[in-house]
Amino acid sequence: MIYSSSSSILSPEAQFQYLQVKLPDLKKLTAPLVIALILFGLVFADIIRWVVISTSAIGFQEAQQKFYSLYPQWLRNNTSTWIMILMLVTAAILFQRERGKTGRSIVLKTLFIFSVILACWLLFTMM
User: Fold this and answer.
1) What residue spans define the domains of the chain?
2) Radius of gyration of the chain (CA)
3) Three-class DSSP labels, 13-81
4) pLDDT, average across residues 59-78
5) Digit-coded pLDDT (tens) for 70-98
6) Are 84 and 122 in contact, with CB atoms under 8 Å apart?
């Protein structure tokens, strides 16, 4: 049973309203938030692609060759990693700025923290 603050049992209608989950308001999706989600999604998809390729390859060198063969010559080696780090930092800044404007502060804070962690991870894997 769900109890209110006055220790009385709530009616079934009140229980339903109490447990009801509010869906996000799509009108609150601003352009910077959409841009941040797209940037984060692109980098996350690239990381997922690296994991899939590296699990199917025999060794690290083979995985690296297969992964870099998907990119044009000018993006190979560290250039693509620097671009992904820049995309994650931009997404983190946009998530941080939009956090106070919308009602989804927990979600945006989580995405901000995850973006910073992924950017640091990519930076330190280059060293």
Assistant:
1) 29-126
2) 21
3) HHHHHHHCCCCCCHHHCCHHHHHHHHHHHHHHHHHHHHHHHHHHCCCHHHHHHHHHCCCCHHHCCCHHH
4) 84
5) 888 888 778 888 999 999 999 999 988 88
6) yes
